[in-house]
Amino acid sequence: MKNAFLIAAPASNSGKTTVTLGLLRYFSKRGVKIQPFKCGPDYIDTLHHSNAAKNQSINLDTVMMSDSHMKTVFSNFSQEATISIVEGVMGLFDGAVKDKGSSAEIAKKLKLPVVLVLNAKAMAYSAAPLLFGLKNFDPEVKIAGVIFNFVKTASHFSFLKEACEDVGVPCFGYLPPEEKIAIPSRHLGLHVHEDYEELLDSAAKHVGEHLDMDALLAATQYKVTVPKATIVSKNSKKLKIAVAKDEAFNFTYRQNLAYLEQIGDITYFSPLRDTELPEADLLYFAGGYPELYVAELSKNTKMLSQVKSRADKGVAILAECGGMMYLGKEIVTEEGTRHPMVGVFGFGTSMEGKKLHLGYRRVVFENDELWGHEFHYSSIYNDEHTETVGEIYTARNKKVTTKYYTYKNVLASYMHLYWGEGTFGWLHSIKN
After folding, report:
1. In this structure, are residues 174 and 207 in contact, taking their beta carbons and an 8 Å threshold?
2. Pairing between strand 114-119 and 2-8?
3. How far apart are CA 177 and CA 361, in angstroms?
4. Domain ranges of the chain
5. Separation of alpha carbons 172 and 221, rounded Å
6. CB–CB of 125/159 below 8 Å?
7. Rounded-to-integer distance, Cα 315 and Cα 312, Å
8. What angle do CA 373, 375, 376 make, to 5 degrees?
9. What is the percent of the chain where pLDDT is above 90?
10. Among 29, 56, 317, 386, which has the highest number of CB atoms less than 10 A from its own CB?
11. Alpha-carbon distance 232 to 25, whole Å?
């Protein structure tokens, strides 16, 4: 019997990411094979997970994935692990539409026990009705127990334990506030201070000193189902695929890359440092932080010109978010400095007056319909004369102004599409 559980909270900012990272590093340091997962389309938390667990974190999503695919992904990656830890998203029942895509829905479909993280900084016995509601709102969601966060004293904790006893929810302990393990701004992603590894080790020590790990593991035993066979390539020939990967471009879904590995042979390259672009039938520029490396990207003129030349020759190029910004005419920093980019498209993108654009998106092309996610702070300008394809809708079926741009055999957008199930017809159409 293995262990698997989903870490959730009543609301965001309860500390579930820090608790997740602490547990991942705690068990990893003890030689336990850990498999981290993240509910939803987040690609920043998965990078944190991967560092903490020394094993790549995988996205689970009931909006972008079919149920059968999500279950297969979970069983495939959990099979070799001793403990699988899934970090939830937002509040337990918060989804794209009601609880669709929520932590609760994923826990139900995978039959995972839920470990709650409750911010109890300003709460005592009122935890009782809150826990009662979370426990009983949907009986299919199995609450294994709770961890109380931001609790300074044992006397405060005694009120919270009484609340647990009265509603029948096990308690795995409490965590005092600790500034040394706070995760920085989400927009900065992995660009944290130089003591990042120390932060993870401190988080592991923190949870190890204050939580009852034996009780946690006893309450979260789980039988992993036998994994199903992976999808089979629809391409008759293997493609040559070049994937941009460095500090500026690293927002990718592991299952997307897994599918690319099935249809082609992947070569990774760095738009920041490399001066030679690999020969390829398909170039893939994922999202990331090009705005943090605009000077370096702009100075690498050999790479810029080679990418432009490939686009002009009709080589297939897929660019998402930061990758799309890179293919534009220029990127403008928060301070208003302009940095020339590839110039495949005539538009530019700007970090001035940052505004968050966030949410699931359904993208409808002529012969394709895929789900993806939009998450960026930059804005696009001077795109009036750029050719576009398809239409983009929210999870509530409202059309959005975000566009999918095209030039010859180039597709580019702010969208991060999910094609891990092998359903992206555009990829199938690329031939050697």
Report:
1. no
2. parallel
3. 37
4. 2-222, 239-428
5. 15
6. yes
7. 8
8. 145
9. 89
10. 317
11. 35
Q: Which active-site residues does the annotation give?
A: 321
Which residues face 322 on adjacent strands? none
Q: What is the number of other CB atoms lying within 10 angstroms of the CB of residue 178?
A: 15
Q: Are the CB atoms for 174 and 210 separated by under 8 Å?
A: yes
Look at residue 191 and tell me whether its pLDDT is greater than 60: no
CA-CA-CA-CA torsion sign (227, 233, 239, 243)? negative
Q: What is the mean pLDDT of residues 340-345?
A: 98
Could you tell me if 9 and 103 are in contact, meaning their C-beta atoms sit under 8 angstroms apart?
no
pTM: 0.94
> CB 210: neighbour CB atoms within 10 A?
18
220-229, 289-298, 311-320: range with lowest mean pLDDT: 220-229
Class of domain 2-222: alpha beta
Residues in the chain: 432
Confidence band, pLDDT 50/70/90 cuts, at residue 179: confident
Q: What does each C-alpha distance from 143 to 86, 129, 170, 189 come to in angstroms?
A: 14, 14, 9, 30
Per-residue pLDDT tens over the stretch 38-84: 999 998 899 999 999 999 999 999 999 999 999 999 999 999 999 99
CATH code at 239-428: 3.40.50.880
Residue located via tokens 């109890």: 120
Q: Within 10 A of 376 (CB to CB), how many other CB atoms are there? A: 24
Q: What angle do CA 35, 50, 172 make, to 5 degrees?
A: 55
The encoded tokens of residue 394 equal 């929210």
Please count the other Cβ atoms lying within 10 Å of the Cβ belonging to residue 69: 21
Between CA 254 and CA 263 the distance in angstroms is 15
pLDDT in tens, 129-157: 999 999 999 999 999 999 999 999 999 99
Q: With beta carbons less than 8 A apart as the criterion, state whether 389 and 402 touch.
A: no
Looking from the CA of 178 toward its CB, the CA atoms found within 13 Å total 21
